[in-house]
Amino acid sequence: MKILIISECTPRERIIVYEVLNNFRDVSVIAPSGKVSVSNDVKSKKGKASFSQRIFKKLHQNALNKKIKGYNLDEIPHETILVPFSQLNNPESIQLIQNLKPDILLTCRAPMLSKDLLSIPKIGAINIHYGVPPKYRGNDTLFWAFLKKDFDFIGASVHQINTGVDRGDIYAVGYPSLQAKDDEVTIDIKTSLVISRAVVEVLKRVKQEQQMPKGMKQETLGKNYKKSDRSLSANLSYQFKKNLGLLKPIPREERIEYFI
């Protein structure tokens, strides 16, 4: 089974890509490169809000890089193709992907893909979403569940890609183990580890059956969090509450729920 991964391969997503490469032989990776197009909702927020997003994102990525050891993708033989963000849905890129003849397309931290591109894989397309839909869709959903003390909904999902934002049928939900001392960084890493195992099991089922699982339909719409929602005040609220010990997850063991 030919698997094509589209991912920026930033620290937490690198864990997922590594696990897939380690379990399947015929895998290619397209890594979108260059600057991401700023969405309209972010453009509408000028000044301190958009500046704070860049600063906090950089600090978070640096913290993840320090915590995550190993997961060097170069250790596992595979093909990596760099495609500029702005050209991923272009006819040339679509032709390139058609030439790869993927059976399955897997995305994790990837740009929005066109219908033409999503129609290429023979079997189907799935996405890794860091959140539990439909309640938490969109961006920074682990952060929002944490900030709202909605600890039962800290997790990630493997779902079908359709035209909605994180609205496709769900194949698996991974809930990381939690401890009172956890913060956003440790939860990101734990979530990556548990959902990487979940997606491997889903892909094994697809390989065995040569078709997409039935999955679980999302009956409600939930909330779609935009990048601009994570404003300066939201980030400061998280830091303030965490420093005062007001954000202590209720301890639990990790678990994975499958709908395959």
Description of the molecule:
The chain has 8 helices and 10 strands. With 260 residues, the chain is of the alpha/beta class.
Index terms:
260 residues, alpha/beta, eight-stranded mixed sheet
Shape: globular
What is the straight-line distance between the termini? 18 Å
Low-pLDDT segments, ≥5 res:
36-49
| Helix content, binned percent | 25-40%
| Beta-strand fraction estimate | 15-25%
How many whole angstroms does the radius of gyration measure?
A: 18 Å
Give the tally of β-strands: 10
Number of continuous helical runs? 8
Could you say which structural class the secondary elements and strand pairing correspond to?
A: alpha/beta
State the oligomer: single chain
Mean pLDDT: 91
Largest sheet: 8 strands, mixed
Tell me the strand order in the biggest sheet.
3-2-1-4-5-7-8-10
Reading the helices and strands in chain order gives: EHEHHEHEHEEHEEHEHE
Short description:
The protein is an alpha/beta fold and 260 residues long. It contains 8 helices and 10 strands.
Topology readout:
Layout: E1 3-7, H1 11-23, E2 27-33, H2 40-43, H3 48-67, E3 79-84, H4 91-100, E4 104-108, H5 115-118, E5 124-129, E6 136-138, H6 141-147, E7 156-160, E8 170-175, H7 184-209, E9 223-225, H8 232-243, E10 255-258
Parallel strand pairs: 1-2, 1-4, 2-3, 4-5, 6-9
Antiparallel strand pairs: 5-7, 7-8, 8-10
